[in-house]
Amino acid sequence: MAPVTLASDKGRVIGTPDTAGQALSVRGMTVSYGAAPVVFSVDMDVPQGAMMAIVGPNGAGKSTLLKAVLGIVKPLSGQVRVFDRALKEALPRVAYVPQRASVDWDFPTRVIDVVMMGMTRELGLLRRVRPHHRARAMDCLARVGMTDFAARQIGQLSGGQQQRVFLARALAQQADLYLLDEPFAGVDAATEAAIIAVLKELRAEGKTVVAVHHDLSTVPDYFTHAFLINRSRIAQGPVAEAFTPETLDRAYGGRLATAPVAQMADTGA
Amino acid sequence: MAVGWQLRPWRRWLTRAPDPMLREALTFGLGYNATLVTLGATALGMAAGGAGTYLFLRKRALVSDAVSHATLPGICLAFMLMVALGGDGRFLPGLLLGSAVTAGLGLLCVAALVRRTRLTEDAAIGAVLSVFFGFGVVLLTIIQTLPAGRQAGLEGFLLGSTAGMLLPDAVLIAVGGALTLALVAVLHRPFTLVAFDPGYAEATGWRTGGIDLVLMALVMAVTVVGLKVVGLIMVVALLIIPPVAARFWTDRAAHLALIAGAIGGVSGYVGAAVSATAPGLPTGPIIVLVAFGMFALSFLAAPGRGVVAVALRHRRLQGAIHMRQGLLALATGQPIYEALTLRLLTRAGLARADGVATDAGRARAAKALRDERRWDVARSSPSLAGIAATHDGLSEIETVLTPDQIAEIDARIDAPREVT
To answer: N vs C: which end of chain B shows fewer Cβ within 10 Å?
Structure first.
């Protein structure tokens, strides 16, 4: 991976980075909630068609990086290009799956309504919901195996089912880039298998997938690319290059026992 | 008149109201002015219920309390300014404009406190509410000492008063309420999205801050428009009670807004009509009491979420579980210790008071045991596991599975045996 130069300095654009062919490019992303930056000067490139895991210890800024990329959190500095365009222009091509715990599941809404939320931007304020919109929402539910739950109140779902509904909502956006925040956190094995199957389908369709991921043992199986972060970028690239015992050791600061890490990384090589 | 013709079936029903004055008021019979006031209150109630729904869903219900209390200094300052300029201090649009200015200021103060300090929103609301209201009361006291202030009737803004309302004022309230209601209807999609998942809303291109600002502006509009009718102390109730009552009836946000709008509208209509029947009756408290009546009804009687329905469902479930456990105990010859279980079994004629099964009881117990075995098989069968997993284990197996499926299960277990 060629070294990437900072494209911005204190918010002043120095030059346009070479982002052609990348689904997502981030330059100099720095985010702070208070004093010390949570994410510091991070550069990131996600090639089109990649399935990338964002990996790092707790508090390493994985979710924050994702939120800053999407503009949910305002960064102190940094540039985001999506499909070689400004984020604002490319936003309709980006779907987001937030952490399941980020919403109140007692909210008065049904499963199908949540999936329809994926079309809110498309429908705007006044456009009526047509049968084909509903049919698309049901299609998305079918892809995650939740057809039978369409009319359920969302409070009656298990954690895994909630996660699938969130994924269905992202599918309803018909985007080209999918950003997922810990899609496998606290879900049952069946859901994990269902979600990874959908993500692999997306990749087969030529879409790009980026997911914050916690389970190091599944990185080589699930993903083609890895991005290791601990406040700053540790490594990025194809799993075989970026997800090595050496990079993991640097990301986790030696907190992982070396032997199993080596084993995990070897399976990916 | 066309309106009169449309109202006729209503009128016939309402003419049974005992008090002729109330009857007249409810059927818009008290004259053009009173009719407009009632219509205005109805529109206001609907707008408040609608806007209040999204405030409630956004979990920011109390912000409206800060907004409403922050209107008082604005009213007083506007009055003083208009008197100082030689005009009529009671000019309603002027007073409402003043109230909007300080209400907006209060809103900005709450927002700034939350953003710039470590204070949470509830603390910021408490601080802003009391300071603004305190300042307003001081101004009100000063106004009372002015020669022009004694008959100003500004106290009417505290609890609401429609008595002596001028026609343009009524029109202003009706139009304001209708406009707010229309805006709520147009914006319901982003409002719902931002209330449910603000991060996702932002990520799909809605500016969450902007949407919140518009919602607050609508709440402010309802408050300001409603000042004369409901009063600043009560207007928060008109925003919050309707959605809270509506929550008992539905699990869908869109329906919640509609039901809340209806509850608010009825409250405004009945409240304004009742208060029009006697000169001294304050409008706000009556509107709020009507709204509360509908809340109490919803709380008790709503199917699904109402307390009576919940209690009944709980008892039915408890009974079914005890029955099932009792039958299984009979089938396996275990003693029954639970008094409720024994009572249910004896009442159904399945066991004697000493816990020994009757003939009918033995038959039912045998079936219960067999069904339990059937469910075990179903749970381990790949084709039926899905159904078995969603099943509560209490309803009769015949109501859940088809005869074919049961036959398929039975083929895999021993034939039913008599239990002794």
So the answer is: N
Distance (Å) from the alpha carbon of B405 to chain A's nearest alpha carbon: 20
Q: What is the pLDDT of residue B410?
A: 80
Q: Do B189 and A72 touch (CB under 8 A)?
A: no
* Contact at CB, A107 and B195, closer than 8 angstroms: yes
- Chain A nearest CA to B407, separation (Å): 25
Phi, psi of A237 (to 5 degrees): 145, -170
Q: Quick one: tokens of B290?
A: 């009507």
pLDDT tens digit sequence for A42-86 = 899 999 999 999 999 888 889 999 999 999 989 999 999 999 888
Residues of chain B with CATH 1.10.3470.10: 31-302
Which of A67, A117, A146 would best serve as a mutation to test chain B binding (most B beta carbons within 10 A)?
A: A117
DSSP A3-40: PPPP-EETTEE-S----TTEEEEEEEEEE-SSSS-SEE
* CA atoms of B283 and A256, how far apart (whole Å): 69
Instruction: Label residue B179 left, alpha or beta by phi (over 0 means left) and psi (-120 to 50 means alpha).
Output: alpha
B10 has pLDDT over 60: no
Among A227-231, A259-263, B325-329, the range scoring the smallest mean pLDDT is: A259-263
In order of their start, the domains of chain A are 19-268 (3.40.50.300)
CATH superfamily of B31-302: ABC transporter involved in vitamin B12 uptake, BtuC (1.10.3470.10)
Quote the CA–CA distance of B228 and B163 in Å, as a whole number.
10
Residues of B in contact with A121 (CB under 8 A): 204-206
If pLDDT is split at 50, 70 and 90, which confidence band does B152 have? confident
Predicted confidence band of residue A4 (pLDDT cuts 50, 70, 90): very low
pLDDT bin (cut points 50, 70, 90) of residue B314 is very high
Gap between the Cα atoms of B8 and B268, Å rounded: 21
Relative to beta strand A225-230, strand A51-55 is parallel
Show which residues on chain B lie within 8 Å of chain A, measured between beta carbons: 57, 59, 186-187, 189-190, 192-193, 195-197, 199-206, 247, 250-254, 256
Residue A174 CB-density burial (10 A; 0-12 exposed, 13-18 middle, 19+ buried)? middle
Residue of A89, A121, A153 to mutate, testing the B interface (most B Cβ within 10 Å of its Cβ):
A121
Adjacent-strand bridge partners of A227: A54, A236
Span of A62-66, B14-18, B19-23, B74-78 with lowest mean pLDDT: B14-18
CA-based nearest residue in chain A for residue B206: A121
